[in-house]
Amino acid sequence: MEFTIDPERQALADTVKSFVDGRVDPRMDEIEATNKLTYEGLNNGVYRAGFATSQTAYEEAVRPLFDTLAALDGRLADRRTLCGGELTEADLRLLPTLLRFDLVYYGHFKCNLRRLIDFPNLWAYTRDLLQRPGVMETFDAQHAKRHYYESHRTLNPSGIVPLGPQLDFAAPHGRERLGGPK
User: Fold this and answer.
1) Rounded Cα–Cα distance for residues 130 and 153 (Å)
2) Would residue 104 count as lying in a domain?
3) Could you tell me if 124 and 178 are in contact, meaning their C-beta atoms sit under 8 angstroms apart?
4) pLDDT tens digits for the chain (182 residues)?
5) Which residue range(s) make up the domain with 43?
6) Which residues lie closer than 8 Å to 128 by C-beta, 6 or more apart?
7) Are 49 and 109 in contact (CB under 8 A)?
8) How many domains, the chain?
9) What gap in Å lies between CA 9 and CA 137, rounded to an integer?
10) What's the pLDDT at 182?
């Protein structure tokens, strides 16, 4: 019996396996620096903004958050993945925040200087990652919205979950032009 493995799923499996068996990616310094940038500036930044209890704290969180989005958007102008080449841990760590950004963080956490869809490279990158085999099935936009809007009663006392925005995560992303893994 012969098994065929989708190259994208294999690349993702290889990435995960490399963390488990201790293989070191030659881009590890770049991956770690990217993880630090995205965690401090974006992944944690949305929470610092959303749960700020003063105007100063909110602004101190939101401004660097949008600087980080702009930096990532620029970085993705000429590369398909954050660290070039195959997917890395950096791509996998960033994706959940990007998927929830316009759905939740923009309104619920007041991260509303710009929407993710206003960053053309990041928006296309998000769709590119989500459209890879097996990934779309792991994301439920309605569940993400319900979780945030219903569980943070200090931010949303009524528990009302907005109907929008309506985002087309399946729209063509056009990032094939950059090469790299499909």
Assistant:
1) 30
2) yes
3) no
4) 333 344 444 555 555 555 556 667 889 999 999 999 999 999 999 999 999 999 999 999 999 999 999 999 999 999 999 998 899 999 999 999 999 999 999 999 999 999 999 999 999 999 999 999 999 999 999 999 999 999 999 999 999 999 999 999 999 999 999 987 66
5) 28-171
6) 80, 173, 175
7) yes
8) 1
9) 13
10) 61
Tell me how far apart the alpha carbons of residues 87 and 117 are, in angstroms, rounded to a whole number. Answer: 22
Q: Which of 106, 104, 115 is nearest to 152 (CA)?
A: 104
99 with 46: CB under 8 angstroms? Answer: no
Q: How many residues does the chain have?
A: 182
In a domain, 11, yes or no: no
| CB neighbourhood size of 88 (10 A) | 22
Six-digit token string for 164: 């929008």
CATH code where residue 45 lies: 1.20.1050.10
| In a domain? residue 17 | no
Within 10 Å of residue 156's Cβ, how many Cβ atoms? Answer: 16
With respect to residue 38, please indicate whether it lies within any of the assigned structural domains.
Answer: yes
**C-alpha angle 175-178-180 in degrees, rounded to nearest 5:** 100
In angstroms, rounded to a whole number, what is the distance separating the alpha carbons of residues 159 and 149? 6
pTM for the full model? 0.85
